[in-house]
Each structure stands twice: as C-alpha cells, then as structure tokens.
Amino acid sequence: MDRHRAWSLRAIDVAGTLLVTVGLLGFLWLTVVRGDDANTEIQELTRTLVEAARNVATLRATRDQQQAVLEERRAELAAGGQLPLQTPIEEYFQTLSRLASDHRLRVVRHHPLTPRSYPGMLEQRYAYEVSGAIPDIARFFKAVEDDDFWADISYLKIAGGDVPLGAATPDERTALLTISVFFALPTEAAPDHG
After folding, report:
1. N or C: which end of the chain has fewer CB within 10 A?
2. 175 occurs within a structural domain
C-alpha cells in the first residue's frame, strides 16, 4: 500500500513538473518568439479602444445637443403652434400703432367689427385705417404679417387718386384694412355617459 501511494505521489509530482514546464515554455514562446507580434497587436487593440472611446464621447455629445434642440423645438411648437385662449387686444393695437408710426403712417381710426366664430376658434375683427405713402403702407403690411402675434390682415382697400382731407402730400393714400385677431375657444367638457 505504501508503495502504491509512493507511485501516486511520484506521478502527481511528474505531472505537476510537466505542467509547470509546459507553462514556462508557453510563456517563453509567447514573450520571446511571439513577443513582438503580441505587443503590436496589444498596441493596435489599445489604439482601437481609445478611438472607440472618443467616438462614443462624440456621439454622446451630439446626442445631447440634438436632444436639447428637440426640446427647444417642442417648446416652440407648444408655445407658437396653438392659438392663445385670450388675446391681449390692447397690446395688439399698441403694437399696430407702433408699427404704423415706425413706417411713417398716421392711424386715422380703428373700431371693432362683428366677430366670427369657427369650431374651436374665434375671429375678432377690427377696421383699421392708416394713411401715408404707398411704399410706407406696403412696408407696414409686411411688418404686420411678420410680427409674431395672432393677428392678420384679412381685408384691404386702398383709396385711389383722391387726396385725403388733411393729407400732408399728394402722394398720400388711405388704406382701410380689416385686422383679424384669432384666439381659441375653450373646449367644453364632454358629457359623461358612464
């Protein structure tokens, strides 16, 4: 029995020695024989990983920028894409008066007209009359159209060759326009049939 045990221990020692020898030979072969190739491959892999990390950082930064632009566009759409529930009429007419003055026009008069109602929307109309030179009137129309309030010129009539009473020059014309101011009507709650 002791002899059998001695042979087992020797077999284990021999197997261990062989494994250690094979491991050392493999290590030597990798470091000495294949060392240059392995180092080159490791360096290439390191460069690839560094470049991939840069690309990921760039993609993340681009994604964050695009997300910010998307949120900005959503906010603009929410704010500008819907009619207001109440219109600041006085503020609109102050703006119109300022635009007329900026374009060297005189405001002759303005007064409310009959409003028009559409599904979900109300159009409050106002007669607005200005006088001045034709080029100034045209620039005024453009300024009204370009302004960011919910008002529009829905009707226009320019008085022809007659010189209006009190006109400063013979070039002066009178423009009668209808300014339509739009705002949303509040939606009524649907009846509960439950």
Report:
1. C
2. yes
CA distances from 101 to 72, 104, 112 (A): 34, 5, 21
Give the pLDDT score at 193.
47
Give the CATH number for residue 94.
3.30.70.60
Q: What's the pLDDT score for residue 160? A: 63
Q: At what angle do helices 89-102 and 134-146 cross, to 10 degrees?
A: 140
| pLDDT of 192 | 47
Euclidean distance between CA atoms 134 and 171, whole angstroms = 8
DSSP H or E stretch at residue 184: strand 172-184
Let me know if residue 104 belongs to a domain: yes
Residue 148, SS3? coil
* Helix, strand or coil, per DSSP, at residue 115: coil
Mean pLDDT over residues 33-43, rounded?
68
| Structural domain count, the chain | 1
- For 43-86, what is each residue's pLDDT tens digit? 787 888 888 888 888 888 888 888 888 787 777 666 665 655 66
In sequence order, the β-bridge partners of residue 147 are none
Apex CA 129: angle with CA 126 and CA 134, to 5°?
A: 135
